[in-house]
Batch of 4 targets.
Target 1
Amino acid sequence: MKEKIRIEGGLELQGSVRTEGAKNACLPIMAAALLCEGQVVLNDIPALNDVMFMCSVLTSLGAQVEYLPAEKRLIIDSTRLTSTEAPYSLIRKMRASFLVIGPLLAREGKARVSLPGGCAIGIRPIDLHLKGLKAMGAEVVIGHGYIETVTDRLRGERVYLDFPSVGATENIMMAGALAEGATVIENAAEEPEVVDLARFINAMGGRVVGAGTDTIRIHGVSRLSSTEYTVIPDRIEAGTFMVAAAITGGEITVENVIPTHIVPLIAKLKEAGCDVIEEESLIHIRRNGQIRAVDIKTLPYPGFPTDLQSQMMVLLTLARGTSVISETVFENRFMHIDELRRMGAQIKIEGHTAVVTGREKIFGAPVKATDLRAGAALVLAGLAAQGRTEVDCIHHIDRGYLNFTEKLAALGAKISRSE
Ligand code: EPZ
């Protein structure tokens, strides 16, 4: 039975909300657990659909996986792996499962992984992942929708990434962790989740330096050992709630957040007319009068994150003035625009740029989520719209937001899920 989210808009949000551990740190770190011939204990792991799915991928490879929901603790024991194949049935449901190819090659010397399909937001190629693995000595054969890779021993190499791909940086870093010699990734992704993965690998006894800069050096070691690790907070979930406060005109506190991880969003919300106060691990945000139009350009970290583009666009549909939003990271991340137009938003698309003409109001309507962040953005639109909004295809939202409706309801939103 398909569930929908129903929202009666127009209520201001008040109160505080705690964000979970970062989905996009959990997924690569869970893949990196395959590098360890022993048990790792991961803390602050949210029971997201994508996280539970990655557990099933690891289990299919022979790892022992146990999730303790009350403690949000995940225990993974990869001492003995029984398979090096990640079938299409798994990969097509979640692209991030492609992150097992680097660790499997490093640990077992081979991997048979389905080519990940494209997805709603873009064709999502993996050429840079394969460029790195080939450079490190893996033979790669592609056929029948699968990638077959084999190597006697990965050796460290210098790899230049044509685009600072998060996934490619992570796969190459994990492969390099057990390779012979040093691997250098140039034009590497600098996202905080990449840094968290490096810290986790080092906690297992690895030697990764430079994560967070555009040049990462990984000195291969012979084996990695057990450790316990707590993942960083989810900067995108935190940002989503901050925009929710700005859209509804409320005032909230977001707890368990690292303010330096969302500098671009804080800057843009201040430019748009919000008061934002940052503390060590929390942020207070309050809308201060009418929202002003601002321009947004998504870029790899430390630029404005593409994962907050749709949420910011919803805010700007209600700004005074015209905003220009450029999406430079993915080629098709404007699907939420058609849905927002159904709510009365005035948005013109010109290639990778959207021109948003602010309006006084938007109006509740039945809409559907097309991807994870677009779905969250439509919920935010419903919070501000006049009348009732119903969001369909909310399985997209459950991939990356834990208890999203409950958290918003606790902040005062009139929101519920129902069949
Ligand atoms: C990660 O995806 C995130 N997912 C995405 O979050 C996020 O939007 C993206 O990074 C950018 O920040 C996870 O971490 C699990 P990329 P990833 O490789 O690694 C091109 C969400 O909502 N590219 O940095 O797939 C690609 O086409 C998700 O949580 C190549 O050309 O992103 C894209 O245009 C959505 N060749 C750009 O790089 C390659 O080999 C960014 O992709 C790889 C990527």
Note: The two ends are 6 Å apart (CA to CA).
Target 2
Amino acid sequence: MTQKTLKFAVLPGDGIGPEVMDVALAVLDKVCTPEGIKLESTFAYVGGAAIDAKGQALPQETLDTCAASDAILFGSVGGPKWENLPPNEQPERAALLPLRKAFKLFANIRPGLLYPELVDASPLRRDRIENGIDIVCIRELTGGIYFGQPKSTTELPDGDTEALDTMVYRKSEIERILKVAFETARTRKAKKVCSVDKANVLTTSVLWRKTATEFAKNYPDIELSHLYVDNAAMQLVRDPNQFDVFVTENMFGDILSDEMAVICGSLGMLASASLGVGKNSFGNAFGLYEPAGGSAPDIAGKNIANPCAQVLSAAMMLRYSFGLNALAEKIERAVRDTVTKGNIRTGDIAFGGQSVSTDVMQAEILKRL
Ligand code: IPM
Ligand code: MG
């Protein structure tokens, strides 16, 4: 057997980032080592931790470490300590946006998964989600109003102030994110893509909808539908499982993915992948993998954080950047069995029942691998 070496950058960041990252690394070691797969992870500072240590949320050496890797495993960034910095220097924006830009991470994949056993964690009524939730948000991540130029604030001659953002999309940008959505739908049972836009108002959305309609002809096996974003926001809380895969532009995806996260119960369970345009040395997508939950500074260092989202993000890394689908599934099964069959849960998903520490959760997941 040839020895495989998985080279990835580890950016734990702030708050609970470092403690849940430790769990993910232990899990990776447990599944990879017996298969003769070597892990070569390189630590780098990011976010508030990088501001403190290096004076910048995304130091050049962190970018260099990422560039020398096949994937990035990311923790979370931000916290009260850095909240009073100017917005552009705050850890979230100053670390994440340039990372996305630098590595052309255009495809953000956010699975919205709620196990049936955890439906009580969702704010939705039980009868709407009896069998859990299983949908996927595909968000365009490097275009649209986030990055469009010009962007400016101008003091006008009449004494007023004007701020400007530009929303811009190329057809080719829309096509490449549609491809991710349709390919994702192909791997799923329902085989449906819902394209979300605001084509009744925005020019970029008119192009988006037209492009989606044309593009769908390449995928006769997938059913395409369209929704305006306001309606999509409503449908998502009304009946989330009417969706299978939905695909949308950057800012709509930002908003809808948070909505999806909350209806899926605990943020501690949700993973994400942001895939780049190029291929890594495995011939797969270079990607950044991060939990949805954020740095949760209020519970950091207390050994109570839910490590599942970070562990599931590591599983996504194995799948998308290293092509190790079977190992990814093994991890996903172990996490699922731990919280469902094992009933081993951190406080965020215990519903007042017995809750365990991060360490115990780690031991229980490892035990099932
Ligand atoms: C996200 C976050 C980021 C975004 C922020 C922190 C810049 O909300 O990943 O969804 O808006 O994309
Ligand atoms: Mg967001």
Note: The chain has a mean pLDDT of 96.
Target 3
Amino acid sequence: MRIWWLIISIFCFVPLHAEDGSQLWLRMKRNAVPAKVSLSKETKKTETMEIAIRELRDYWNSPTAVTLKVASDAPGRDGFALNRTNNGISVSSATDRGVLYGIYSLLRLQQMGDSLQVGQTVQEVPSYDLRILNHWDNPNGTIERGYAGRSIWKWDELPRRISPVYEEYARANASIGINATVLNNVNAKPEMLSTDMLRKVAAIAKVLRPYGIKTFLSVNFASPKVIGGLDTADPLDTQVQAWWKKKVAEIYRLIPDFGGFLVKANSEGQPGPQDYGRTHVDGANMLADVLAPYKGVVMWRAFVYQASSSDRACQAYEEFMPFDGQFKENVIIQVKNGPIDFQPREPFSPLFGAMRNTQVMPEFQITQEYLGQSIHTVFLATMWKDCLDSDTYQENGLTVAGATQRRTVPGATTAMAGVANIGDVRNWTGSDMAQSNWYAFGRLSWNTELPAANIADEFLKQTFSTDERFVAPVSQLLLRSWNAAISYMMPLGLHHIFAEGHHYGPEPWCNVPGFRKDWLPSYYHQADSFGVGFDRTTNGSGAVKQYHEPLSVLYNDVNTCPEEYLLWFHHVSWDYIMRNGQTLWDNLCYTYQFGVDETVRFVKTWENAKAYVDAERYEKMLQRFRRQAADAEWWRDACVLYFQQYSGEPIPAGCFTPKHRLEDLMRYKLRIDNYTAAGMDKLP
Ligand code: GCV
């Protein structure tokens, strides 16, 4: 009797397939009867082609037959053509990888409830050659700035055990056009290049390869010293060069299609060529020479700054511009979207417009280090589009996208990088909505012209529901979420007023004795009794001069500077009159409150979406939206009350009443585990 009761209870009360978010946007229903798929005569059945066939057989649910074709006259560079005639659909490309992207595009249409009409052709060629994820994963399984568990790379088990997650990861990336990945943190451990580790890397590369994904590694510039036993890592030393040559030969023996190296040198304590009186060119070109015979590339990061007197925002330009045109063809300078560090809002980095003779690539941060981590919903396609669409004024209408997609020499590689938000939790990204940013990175690096609204719609329809009553309001939520976060965190060009260390909450007052000035919020906000903001005009740090005209002039003048960058470029008095007639102080208060109001509306929108979302994801996201709304009040109160000490002005009547007292907030220390999902109830 008891056992029957147990069995009945299990079947009645435990859902057979609890929704854990692990399927991401790939939620096609498997066919009961395999779909009709054939290969054209000349097309070889490679491993990649087998994946394409399998995906269609399993998930293409239309009676229309599909023919796959690799042909030299079809689109190249991973591009593809879809063509529907009365006889069926053909998917063609110059490569099997292109065919794979073609079939994922076809399946995407199907999932969104769209279809190809007879006579219709779709042709696509990706915006960048390399659409590359950067994992900041450490060999010990931790992830720098990771908020979704531990690393998916299980180094202890490799190469013996190959986790099935690697193939799921490869498939998810291929489905959105990502074709490369850097497995380890830019703060690289030298042991990543040990033979033991390389064998493990090779085992991962083998799983990723059929999905068209190339494997790259971040390298520590001091590796020849630390693991090579040499007494120097000087790039001009012949023994050092020989060490790298031998190491690279070993890598290519194990991984014949290895992509190359990502290097963070002479930045935040990492070793680099400057340790030996050499330059970034010396370091990058030495590695480029070693990789060139294998067609490998070096992605050399421009994220460099010293604790010097010069404005941190100016330093990447100052260090790299003198070398424009001196880097080897297979070097790409990897530049963060803004001149400081993935802040909620930054103007685009002036290097994009400045470097004319050097291949430059944008680096975006998918993981939300500075944007509420895996708690806040902030859809980043809007932010990335804002950067990519910015006119650099280097030449007529040359945008950041244009400047980075242009080849400086015929053989150069173009690329766009995103710092991954992936970990080993079941839903990959901690928050189910944060999957939208992984998705958006893939889709945008494939096609920088895609509007953010289309990407939001695609994601929501595939991941949650195609019902317009769900898609329309939640898509609006996503599209407004970046502006909301800026408003409740750092409006009007404020930046880097985060709590030290974890970068989750506000700490405009933060002062760590003995700390570098450029690691403290007061360096960035410069609040005093006159006003607030960093003077980067020609009277200040001169950062405006790094932009081409008319931007330099526009940014330099407080009256023409876009208000979203006002306090980025200017130190402005509290009673300065904004374009809407409010004083800066009043406007700041109203903008913070607008951000809070938006998050309250997001909670409502999500509550109204309940009928269209499974209970598990609904509940988990509801908790997060509520926490985001509470955090927004925390941000508002901390910043407004702190700045009020300098402005001496009251909060405008009717704007808001603070929920917290400044002295309580200043005493509050967020413990590192408080901002994981488990600690969501622990607010200041
Ligand atoms: C990988 C910021 C982050 C660091 C990160 C660094 C970088 O400073 O806080 O964690 O280090 O950027 O991009 O190299």
Note: The two ends are 51 Å apart (CA to CA).
Target 4
Amino acid sequence: MKELTHYINGEHVKGTSGRFADVYNPAIGEVIAQTPLASAAEMDMAVQAAAAAQPAWAAVNPQRRARVMMKMVDLLHRDMDKLAEALSQEHGKTLPDAKGDVIRGLEVVEYCIGAPQLLKGEYTDGAGPGIDMYSMKQALGVTAGVTPFNFPAMIPLWMCAPAIACGNAFILKPSERNPSVPIMLAELFEEAGLPKGIMQVVNGDKDAVDAIIEHPTIQSIGFVGSTPIAEYIYAGGCAAGKRVQAFGGAKNHAIIMPDADMDNVVNALIGAGYGAAGERCMAISVAVPVGEDTADRLIAALSPRVESLKIGPYTSGDDVDFGPVITGAAKDKINGLVESGIAQGATLAVDGRGFSLQGYEDGFFVGASLFDHVTTDMDIYKQEIFGPVLSVVRAKTYEEAIGHAMDHEYGNGTAIFTRDGDTARDFASRINVGMVGVNVPIPVPLAYHTFGGWKKSAFGDLNQHGPDAFKFYTRTKTVTSRWPKGTKEGANFSIPTM
Ligand code: NAD
């Protein structure tokens, strides 16, 4: 059995806690490796290495830090196939989708090449007599990130690239489901010129996360994962005096207006609802057609497309639309929710239950399901299913449709499909969701904008990547300097005013 390691201070370090987690190839349902689960002592080793290396890295001028990012972009392109293969093997997503995972992370590395510009401070010449005032953005020190299984390249890169570009050391605690790609990213950063100790990977579970929360040297925590854990880390990290941003789960609604181009809608929903087996925080999991006629046309057009989706292992190449889900437990949870939908009165328009693939009977494959006549009191509506299941909630009016999206506890992404500019504009303005698509089903902002949900999908003030990341990973210091000419003044006991 392959034993994976941590990556601490530029070395592959074996786990010493005696605890390990199984890493599966979800397509065959077999354990392919074991990953160590760190103790607080192992986390401390990484923190000590990070604290020792970070001051010198912060003192490297921003252009040189940017050059590491430039080189990293080249290396990610060079190793794209290798990364995608390792990612698909442990995650299950198709190879083109795995490459997309790497590319959306790489784009944030590209953005970080702009560090010299993004880290510029402000200067006021002559703020008072002989007085100049300037601000600088300084690194926090040792920072940490905790990431989910569903984007093992993209989300670690969204955190570590800006953290490092700002002059911090970064400790990644990736998902224990797929730890290989994060280690490869740390190795590539060092090949790109990063000193040892600046990018480290400590594998683990709750113990490792608690060690991050409790470690006094760690200044900030970035988290992406499910909402209960986001709330736990946000509360614990803030109570420990750290800066925290924590991104949680989602239930993304697509509103389909009667005037929408139904061919476009169906293509959009097929990709956004079932791509990556629905294991995306920006997946569309609820479609809300407005009007009975729109709903009937949607179900009629969508059902045959859902029935003909091709499900299989990533090794089948381009012939597959989506792969298995991540674990047997995830498969059971999804199947359980499908049963609950039937029991609670929804109509199963396409039944994905009982899907099995010859030769891959033990793989964690789940067939694609489509529910019609879903109501907002059902578990399949309230909960994040995180599987290949799309729920159709019929609404009589636009107001009822937007009301559903507004009332849901999650607010990550949403989309409206319409040809009417007024409706689209009204929707984008009023909806209480962080990322909005107009005829765009997965409105993940590009690297130079910021990514983040509202409501129970995000905790903290700043979004991921874009300019917010450079705010999250720095703190501002403002200097007031005075070089008085002529006679010396006496003491002044009032607050200085100009
Ligand atoms: P998860 O919450 O189970 O795990 C995320 C991370 O938290 C992992 O590193 C895991 O080891 C750690 N963790 C798990 N249990 C913990 C505990 N009790 N205490 C401390 N740490 C713990 O999430 P997941 O299953 O890996 O990922 C899927 C979830 O992530 C979905 O809810 C999805 O919507 C969400 N997600 C959100 C975004 C976003 O940007 N909002 C992006 C991707 C995924």
Note: The chain has two domains: 2-248+457-479, 252-438.
